[in-house]
Every structure is written in C-alpha cells, then in structure tokens.
Design brief:
CATH architecture of the largest domain: Alpha Horseshoe
Largest sheet: none
Organism: Chrysochromulina tobinii
Protein name: Cell differentiation protein
Family: Belongs to the CNOT9 family.
Strand content: under 5%
Number of helices: 17
Helix content: 55-70%
InterPro entries: ARM-like (IPR011989), ARM-type_fold (IPR016024), CNOT9 (IPR007216)
Distance between the termini: 54 Å
Number of domains: 2
Shape: elongated
GO cellular component, one term: CCR4-NOT complex
Length: 294
Amino acid sequence: MAGIPGLPGESSMTPLNAEETDKIFVLVLELTNPDQRETALLELSKRRETFPDLAPILWHSFGTVSALLQEIVAIYPLLSPPALTAQASNRVCNALALLQCVASHPDTRTLFLNAHIPLFLYPFLNTVSKTRPFEYLRLTSLGVIGALVKVDDADVINFLLSTEIIPLCLRIMETGSELSKTVATFIVQKILLDETGLAYICATAERFYAVSTVLANLVGALVEQPSGRLLKHIVRCFLRLSDNARAREALRQCLPDALRDATFSACLKDDVTTKRWHTQLLFNITESVQHVQG
C-alpha cells in the first residue's frame, strides 16, 4: 500500500509526458464504466503519486466521484456479517486511495469536506473483524482521514469533531494492528494539537479519561512489544493534554508509570524529538505538583 499520512515517507512527483497524461484522462473516463472500472481503479491508484493534478481532475470530471462512492457503498452489505474477500477489499481500497488523493490536494480538500464524503468511510472504521481484508480496509480508510488532518486546518478539525471520529479512532487504537493503531493515534494527536480539539477533549472528565485511558493502555502494550513510532505519537498526545490545566492535574494521577521511569529509555535513545517531548511532559506535571504544594 502507498504511504500512510502521518508516517515517514514523501511521494516523488515526476513530470509526465503528453502520452502518459492522455492515459490518465482515459482511465478517469473509464471509472464511469462499470465494466472498465476495476482496472481503471487499479491503474489510477498506482499512478496517483506521480500525477500532481489528479485530484482536481477526479473531482471535476462528470460522474467520477459518484463512481468512487458507488464502490464504497457496494461493499456495505459485506461488512456485517463479515464476508469481505481480499479481491473486494483491494478494489474498494483502490477507490479509497483516489479519495485520499482528493483529500490531500489543497484545491479539493474543502470541497471534499463540504460534501461530507468522510462519513462514507465511517462504516469501515466501525468494523471489528481482524481478518486481513478488513484490516486493510480500516487502514486505508484511516489514511484518508490522516490525509485530511495532516495539513493544519481548523475546518477539518471542526468537521471531524462534529462526527464520531474520536470514538472510532480510540477503538482502533485498542484493537487494530500496530500500523492502524499508529495512524489512529496520529489522527487523535492532530485533533489535540488544534486549540478547539484540545478544548473539546478536555471539556468533560468523560472525554478526557476516554482518551487518556486508551493512551495508557497503549503504553502498557508497548512495554511488551515496543514500537518507536507509536510511542512518539502517544507521548505527543500526553504532552499536548498537559497544556490544559485540568488535564495536567489529572495526569499527575493517571500518567502511566512506564512514562515516569526509564522503561522506554532504550526506545527513546536515538529519537531526540520524542525524548524532548517526554522530558517536557514530566516537567509539566512535576511543575503542577510543585505549584499545588507551594
């Protein structure tokens, strides 16, 4: 699968010649033909990182977005009871990859949001089957949301807060594969880094503890199976929570012991950024204690 937003890796854009560009337009046209769609989905998903203007072409071509949504809606009946095959999963994931392209592009991101297209993906995020076709479907759907939050945009955060994205991400953080957990945690991190997002999560004790408990459970799992990139997002989430006064007081009690001692010192040894965040987190909650005692 292509790069997941929020994880390392940059796509390379190389200029296409006229013949290759014409081929792109033909493939986009073929998306609207049910008999040609599967092949067109596959070929376009392969080419999307080498053609920077694919997103506006997809969005503004007659019937194209509708065709992509048809692919998504068509597999809803396979979600429950779980009946998704590898072929069906791969096909819809190719459609999702094209929607991720639209979500990533500055000229189409707002249009994508205004059409509420992310909501079509939520049934995929709500699945619990651990089979490979479902895991691939969840991960690719998370990639679309990750593409939206990767660029700091208040409209994106406001839209997501009006939906059920946080509970969906929290469940994936608890039950998904390591990569799914990492992308879901990245999405929560980006929501927290927005002022409105932080205020939303810290507005009630229930929301704060829902997020902090899942983060703490992830820390406990990492003690057994360390993952540097997942730990990085977890530490950043806790550090951001410590920017809120009420949350900072609560973290004095509920921050996992494994983040207070040297449990992850080997994991953090070569990661200067995460080590700095970790040090700042401990300083913030210690300062809080001293302030209360003073």
